[in-house]
Write a structure and sequence with these properties.
316 residues, Rossmann fold, 2 domains, two-stranded parallel ribbon, 8 strands, 12% strand
């Protein structure tokens, strides 16, 4: 069993006259057919899908794009706004990417200011007929920290919200979306148990986290870890020398076995603190994919194994 969770506070009849102004009948018929095709495409677009039948989706992060693909399957065409390795808090898209926002039927973002520099851009450039889905909207949070998906139970909620949005936009695909979502939810429930088991294999006194930035309160709360400290509240905020000294002291005082960097960030300060305290430097993922971690399931499974390996549990 995982630890209990407590929250901190129209076909148209087109008739063609073939005797008007020497226009060949075949050309007039062709024009009528093309007109009907345009009208049909417009109707398709207004119903929330492209002429191809696919729903066009833009997600802010590759992680959310992965969730959409799992639910949407071949009925969706998904693009990602923020490249892997970029900081979602500060990323500014080029004009070419901004122009594409208006082509999406569905825009998926986390909210809670994870994509702080993009929230206005997305809403200002989205099509008036598009749906903007904030995955974290209305969920219970830990001091408005946006990284809810690092507890798989919240990841399952994200999947359900994506399913409901796709059903609303593309009712013809409702059965497929629901079946895909149920299959994926079952996979995530198994993943949730894997993460819980990995953490439970760690001796209780060693279930302690020191990380590069404050991305892991839901991981800690959901699976019974204690956050001892972090280098920066969010990427881009440099700590003072006093902050580093205090973190080093906390590592020593709390008997922290290892500290955790993130692959997409330079964490020299955390490396220094770990060296001073004589502890191992390991990795955890929060929101970015790499060549080795290419899906949400990959991300959470890597984190579970790394926690167990570095904190003295069964790394399996």
């Amino acid at each position: 069993m995982r630890p209990g969770i407590r929250m901190r506070n129209t076909t148209r009849d087109t008739r063609v006259s073939c005797f008007v102004s020497r226009v060949p009948c075949s050309l007039a018929i062709l024009a009528a057919v093309l007109t009907a095709a345009v009208l049909s495409a417009a109707c398709s677009s207004n119903n929330g899908t492209e002429a191809s039948g696919q729903v066009k989706v833009t997600a802010t992060l590759g992680l959310f794009a992965d969730l959409v693909k799992q639910v949407g399957g071949d009925r969706v065409q998904v693009s990602t706004l923020i490249p892997d390795g970029s900081d979602p808090h500060t990323y500014e898209p080029p004009p070419s990417q901004i122009a594409k926002l208006g082509q999406a039927n569905l825009l998926v973002m986390n909210g809670l200011h994870l994509e702080a520099s993009l929230e206005g851009v997305i809403r200002e450039n989205a099509s008036s007929s598009a749906t903007v889905l904030e995955l974290a909207a209305g969920l219970a949070t830990l001091e408005d920290n946006p990284h809810l998906w690092l507890d798989v139970q919240n990841g399952i909620t994200y999947v359900e919200r994506i399913r409901d949005a796709l059903v609303s936009i593309d009712p013809a695909g409702a059965d497929a979306y629901r079946a895909n979502a149920e299959r994926y939810r079952a996979e995530l429930r198994t993943l949730d148990q894997e993460v819980a088991a990995a953490v439970e294999s760690i001796p209780p006194e060693r279930r302690k986290l020191v990380t590069f930035h404050d991305a892991y309160p839901y991981l800690a709360q959901g699976y019974g870890l204690e956050i001892v400290g972090f280098v920066a509240e969010s990427p881009g905020k440099e700590p003072s020398a006093q902050d580093v000294a205090a973190l080093t002291q906390a590592i020593d005082d709390e008997g922290v076995p290892a500290v955790f960097t993130e692959p997409q960030f330079s964490a020299g300060i955390l490396d220094l603190a770990a060296d001073d305290a004589g502890v191992e430097v390991c990795s955890l993922y929060s929101d970015a994919f790499t060549d080795d971690v290419k899906s949400y399931v990959d991300l959470m499974r890597f984190n579970a194994r790394e926690l167990a390996r570095c904190l003295g549990g069964a790394s399996g």
